[in-house]
Amino acid sequence: MPDFRTIPRAGRVVKTLAVPTAVAVAGLLLTACGARDDVSASGSDSVSCVDTSQDTIKVGSLHSLSGTMAISEVTVANSTRLAVDQINAAGGVLGKQIELVLEDGASDPKTFAEKAEKLISSDCVAAVFGGWTSSSRKAMKPKFENLNSLLYYPVQYEGLEDSKNIFYTGATTNQQIIPALDYLKEQGATSLYLVGSDYVFPQTANREIKAYAAANGIEIKGEDYTPLGSTDFSTIVNKIRTANADAVFNTLNGDSNVAFFREYANAGLKADEMPVISVSIAEEEVAGIGVQNIAGQLTSWNYYQTIDNPVNSTFVADYKAAFGADKPTSDPMEAAYVAVHLWKNTVEKAQSFAVEDIQAAADGVGFDAPEGRVTIDGDTHHITKTARIGEIRPDGLIYTVWDSGEPITPDPYLESYDWAEGLR
């Protein structure tokens, strides 16, 4: 059995090539909401109902405040609010105060699409910050493309996508999943068991994991999916025990993780014998699962509350002051907070709220984030991010046991990996 408690001394930094995919944008938004931002500085004739004549500018916050994903998304909406409040306190954006319009996606992709259209067409927001599951993002994507608006999506995802109307501030595959696989391989893992929720992200991520495994001599001993919100994991955990893989790669989302890890612990499966590495469990989920059920297990993200730098210390203190001293911060929360600041910085670089101007100005826009410096790649609309493997400790926090040493250039289509050719 490999020793998963050994901490590598150096990270592997993946440098990639970014090949943009053109996305057709069709349709015009003709709703009138006051003065219109009809013509951008770049000369586009797209019509928007965003009102730039007032002292405020509207943006949308669209997350699951109810349903199975609320365990993860409520705090992301909170960090979006924190960023807006801080920006407003510092003078706003181009002299305008930000007005946040809050909507509930209710853990349902169809609702996300409907609320996105409302925010764009009726509320006339300049941008929307929202989504978690890939199903919610994919449901919203045509709305933002057809109505030519902007979505800032704050959560790690499976890659193989880009859009001129979406900025992805969470990790793509080569910034989270591949570093996790590299870490397990370096620790001696030669077999994996895959368990995930039954929707886009886990299914696509596991296709990528299986392609990596085939190219790296790793055996996949089992693969199981369960609907979002599932709470019965007795059969799956028994299959995992029987398979006796070196590690479990977990792509479950939402409150299914609570039931899974409780069953895993009840079955006597130990982190030091068959560790689980998760890509959708952060600090706020640990409390819901119960730290006694998950201590010692691994995660792969780009940010943890325990990162030691002055920017993060301020972010953590500000979040706790706003929402409670017992409230932890997490990767998706930080990515949502970063998204608002990147939007602000891009608007100020463009000196415009128009979609086309923001798209044209985005390349190279950066922000000194709690996770470290991040920069927008103008071709893919993803950002540079430092990969971090973390271990969940008995205090309920996650501590870095490995990092990539510097930010990884986003490669959403895995162009730099020969083994991924069949995935694109």
How many beta strands in the DSSP annotation? 14
General shape: globular
Bin the strand percentage: 15-25%
**Between the first and last Cα atoms, what is the distance in angstroms?**
34 Å
Helix content: 25-40%
Q: Quick one: biggest sheet? A: 7 strands, mixed
Report the total helices.
Answer: 12
Q: What class do helices, strands and sheet pairing give?
A: alpha/beta
The pLDDT mean sits at: 90
| Weakly predicted, low-confidence segments | 1-46
Strand order across the biggest sheet? 7-6-8-9-10-13-14
**SSE sequence, one letter per element:** EHEHEHEEHEHEHEHEHHEHHHEEEE
What is the CA-based Rg, rounded? 21 Å
Task: Lay out the secondary structure.
Blueprint: E1 56-63, H1 70-89, E2 97-104, H2 109-121, E3 128-130, H3 134-146, E4 151-153, E5 166-168, H4 173-186, E6 191-197, H5 200-215, E7 219-226, H6 234-243, E8 247-251, H7 256-266, E9 276-278, H8 283-289, H9 291-294, E10 298-301, H10 310-323, H11 331-350, H12 355-361, E11 366-369, E12 372-375, E13 388-392, E14 398-403
Parallel strand pairs: 1-2, 1-3, 3-4, 4-5, 6-7, 6-8, 8-9, 9-10
Antiparallel strand pairs: 10-13, 11-12, 13-14
Give a description of the structure.
- There is one protein chain.
- The chain has 424 residues and is α/β, with parallel strands linked by helices.
- 35% of the residues lie in helices and 17% in strands.
- It is built from 12 helices and 14 strands.
- A 7-stranded mixed sheet has the order 7-6-8-9-10-13-14, with helices on both faces. The chain has a 5-stranded parallel sheet with strand order 2-1-3-4-5, with helices on both faces.
- A hairpin with a 2-residue loop joins β11 and β12.
- α1 packs parallel to α11 and α4 crosses α5.
- It is globular, with a radius of gyration of 21 Å.
- The N terminus is likely disordered.
